[in-house]
Amino acid sequence: MGIATGAKIKKLKYGHRGNHPVKDLQDDKIYMTSQNHGYYIIEDSINSDIVEISHANLNDGTIEGLKYKDKKIITIQFEPESCPGPEDTEYIFDNFVRMVKGGVK
């Protein structure tokens, strides 16, 4: 989605593998997440008129999630259903369903 809306990506030197702390910027909470990816969105390349950063990696500050302002679209760069806590970030699914049904989160 980032690329589709004009953002640029870059390869991580070592990739994000295993468990990484991620901060939900809206709720100001930190979660341990399971990750397995090798690229990140360059923050300066996102169009802040259409998207806002929702999650950030606390190890290196890279973007881990985006929320689109005028679309029913959210993205994350980690595995919300996986360990270390398979229900820790389950709220993301709840937020998505609420958003699609017309609620706000």
Features:
single chain, 105 residues, mainly beta, Rossmann fold, 5-stranded antiparallel sheet, 1 helix, globular
Distance separating the two termini: 19 Å
Helical content, roughly? under 10%
Question: What integer is the average pLDDT?
Answer: 86
Poorly predicted runs of 5 or more residues: none
Quick one: CATH superfamily? Answer: Class I glutamine amidotransferase (GATase) domain
What does the largest sheet look like?
5 strands, antiparallel
* Rg, Å, rounded: 13 Å
- Tally of separate domains: 1
Instruction: Tell me, briefly, the overall form.
Output: globular
Q: Treating each run of at least 4 consecutive H or I residues as one helix, how many helices?
A: 1
Provide the β-strand percentage band: 35-45%
Secondary structure layout:
Elements: E1 9-24, E2 29-41, E3 51-57, E4 63-68, E5 74-76, H1 91-100
Antiparallel strand pairs: 1-2, 1-3, 3-4, 4-5
Could you characterize the architecture of this molecule?
It is a single chain. The chain has 105 residues and is mostly beta strands. It has a single domain, classed as Class I glutamine amidotransferase (GATase) domain (Rossmann fold, 3-Layer(aba) Sandwich). Helix content is 10%, strand content 43%. The protein contains 1 helix and 5 strands. The chain has one helix at residues 91-100; strands at 9-24, 29-41, 51-57, 63-68, 74-76. A 5-stranded antiparallel beta sheet has the order 2-1-3-4-5, with no helix packed on it. A hairpin with a 5-residue loop joins strand 4 (63-68) and strand 5. The protein is globular and about 40 Å long. The two termini are 19 Å apart. The model has no long low-confidence stretch (mean pLDDT 86).
